[in-house]
Amino acid sequence: MDDVDVRLERTIEELLDQRRPDVSICPSEAARAVAAEGWRDLMPAARAAAGRLAAAGAVEVTQGGAVVDVATARGPVRVRRPR
C-alpha cells in the first residue's frame, strides 16, 4: 500500500463517521476528497480500499442493498458500516 491507499481508507472511514450510522457512501466520494481533479483515476484504488476495509470488518460493500464482494461486483457500489 502506498500513501494514496492509506488516505483513501482513512477518508472512507472519516466520511462514514460524518454520516448517520444507516447512511452509505459511494467510493467516488473518497476519491474526490483525495484528488478533486484526478478522482476518476483513483476509482480502482478507492474500490480496493473499500474492499480492504470490508475484509477487516470495518465496512460492508453493497450493491442494490445486498452485501457484495467488491472484487467481483460490476457497476456502482456503496460502502456502509456493518449492520
UniProtKB/TrEMBL annotation:
Residues that span the membrane, as ranges: none
Protein name: S-adenosylmethionine tRNA ribosyltransferase
Species: Blastococcus haudaquaticus
